[in-house]
Amino acid sequence: MATRGFTRKTSPADYADRIPPGQSRTEGFPVLSAGPTPRVSLGDWSFTLKIGPRPMMRWTWEEFTALPQTKMTRDIHCVTKWSKLNTPWRGVLIDDILAEAGLALPPDYTLAHSFDGYSTNVPTADLIGGKAMVATHYEGKPLTPEHGGPARLLVPHLYFWKSAKWINALQFLERDEAGFWELRGYHIYGDPWREQRYRGD
Amino acid sequence: MTDATLQAGHVQWQEAVIERIERQTEGVKSFLLRPQTWRSFRAGQHLDLRLTTPDGYQTQRSYSVASAPGFKGLYELVVERLDDGEVSPFFHDVAEVGDAIKIRGPIGGHFAWGPEDGGPLLLIGGGSGVAPLMSIVRHRAAVGRDVTVVLLHAARTWDDVIFREELIARDATEANFTLLLSLSRDTARRPQDFGRRIDASLLNMTLARLGTAPRLTFACGSNAFVEAVTGHLLDIGLDPRTIRTERFGG
């Protein structure tokens, strides 16, 4: 049922088929974080691949940025109701990270970890096959701290809380384990096209 | 605390009727909504609102609940009018008492406080970012008077201070509650307030009011505001794990 007197301000966008239900297009790039922006120097930065509790491989910033670079331009969708189209990223595909580690068949579930203690879970299938990367650049420039720099996960087909800022590890697990927001009422998977915002959606 | 469970009912859309509209400041109004089914919540949580045009276009927004969980039957939302917005001008210029709005929630498990979380608390709000903090202040007064709270509330001018009279009255009458105002484009009207923006020295003076390091800090406002404030708090040496943020705009 219509809301009395409510009218849309913008004309129906050409991109309407790219905006998931309940989302509004933004030209800006809002910042959402559960806490302060952590201060991560490149000298202290590292990225670790783990299987369960066991570290498999660890990269310094220099080593990590020497891995094959891939560009990806995608639409992104934040659970706080904004979508941003055509965002250009550069970084290292999860496929290339796995290849470098010689890990052909990682376990089915992944927990991404961040320098600030944040975590989020993503099925491993959603990270491979060119679908996701660890991004270090946005619009051709090093990723700024408030947007997750030095490096963030980019899983653009899921709500953007899955694209963990300030990433420092990917941990592969045999069983799905909820991350930070997933433990706090948000959806375990987070598909914007099925509007999976909260647990129960 | 971290396993705030969400009952299935919280995510169901339902109708709420606007029962009262109160002008807070120039450009800011409170809307008191009476939902069909009122559910209790944690101070600091938000509602999702959904508006629909006659041709079926829908848009959603999130608004923090400013009322306390003890204010049963109603949810108070604070809406700042943004000229280029789609939803806030509707609320300010079109919505009337008796209108029905679709809502769901309250939702959110991190930017939330209950007496079990303890204190002392440092609350820092920029403009309408005070809304979820107001819920905490009101809830504390009802159920946690032994918890020490300092609210540092930033606004442009004295007249832009949302909930000013209520907060000043609470400051005068409630033990363990202190209000400090930071007015970026005005002079301080009370001796303890500041006629300038929040900076490191202002935050040091605010922390001195608490006596000890806050167990939790809640900062809410525009991203620029929250980024600046939390940057100073890290410089001062606060443990980042004790700082929770909620940001809007961009």
UniProtKB/TrEMBL annotation, chain A:
Stretches for region Disordered: 1-33
Superkingdom, taxonomy of origin: Bacteria
UniProt xrefs under InterPro entries: OxRdtase_Mopterin-bd_dom (IPR000572), OxRdtase_Mopterin-bd_sf (IPR036374)
Gene3D superfamilies membership: Oxidoreductase, molybdopterin-binding domain
Domain Oxidoreductase molybdopterin-binding: 35-181
Coiled-coil regions listed in the entry: none
Listed name of the protein: Molybdopterin-binding protein
Species name: Microvirga aerophila
